């Protein structure tokens, strides 16, 4: 049965993955981390991640264009890398996001996004 | 080795973690709670201000109440409730871990934030959930301090975290924007429920509730606790005495008959007004079948008037609506919360 650590290990097998974490985006706290983080600081990265998610969530422009719309992914591209955020939807109350940092050259955005979708679903779904 | 030491909660936690101990760090004060340590790693924390794993899973509907209860019955004595839920296929390992992590950090905030609260360590104490996650104690302590700072960055008034939540009667601006969690809070805030009550009622993390409340206080959407002057009672909904004002409004309705031909008029009340005054039904006169909730005790229940007996019902039939709902609880949510806490406390004693 895949747990949190297993999920992060899998995320690190995504081509180009440099680091991964699960972040509580109300508090900006990394619930679980693995690999590298930008500036070697998972906690600072989590705080930044949380601000990005909250900014997107609190701008009704993005999530309220149609009724019952939900934020799924946030993708930030930089010259050196990709930062992918996938919201983890649990039935119980939580506000979690799966974060993977990819190397720009080795990473493939489409593959990474699909893998993260599967990982986030598997983490909470009965199989 | 029944050691009991008193020190600042965070320092004591760091010390027992350094000694790789197993046990429970219990912290007094308000709200207080406990942090469970297993071989020096934090495995769980609980506080009355933070919904526990059980509340989070059942109030969201993720688990049925009886599923949770049977896992508790089966696994509590062996401290393996969490493992059971996964083994029986009710939860995935990922869900359980995420839920326990969330609940633990949430409760740890309430347990450890007050650095002056009395704390003691009970070696050997285990939690019925069992070890699901293993968190570095220093990380927990650091995160608690960070959360304290985060709240003060939003709106520096710790009274908001404990005082009953009172939405302002009139918003301070023509147009206000609120988030979905804030809406839930405003809908459920009845002027009596505290943030802890609301967290249990909504099944949301206690810290997340406080965060939203501080944001709403900053936006002027809830009354700041210190300005709640006693001379403005119209905004404070005082608890209503139960069952006192009910009979006047409802006494004209006849007692309905669920089954059986026996009409109510066969047993008229001794007083001439023909009023089947249900609120005067004494507690000592239980209806024949079913287990209806007893009338609330009070002076008005002990009068000499003998009320009409209830019509005979089939076993298992529900009480007539008018009778069953004769004294609607004024703030049912708070009662539910209280009941839940009592139940949780009883379970923990097993």
Automatic annotation (TrEMBL), chain A:
Protein name (database record): Roadblock/LAMTOR2 domain-containing protein
Organism in which the protein naturally occurs? Actinoplanes xinjiangensis
Automatic annotation (TrEMBL), chain B:
| Transmembrane spans | none
Identify the domain of life.
Bacteria
Q: Give residue ranges for domain PatA-like N-terminal.
A: 9-147
- For bias type Basic and acidic residues, the affected ranges are 270-282
Coiled-coil zones: none
Q: Give me the ranges of the annotated region Disordered.
A: 254-336
Residue ranges with Pro residues bias: 284-297
Question: What InterPro entries has UniProt attached to this entry?
Answer: PatA-like_N
Descriptive protein name: PatA-like N-terminal domain-containing protein
Query: Per the UniProt entry, what species is this protein from, by scientific name?
Result: Actinoplanes xinjiangensis
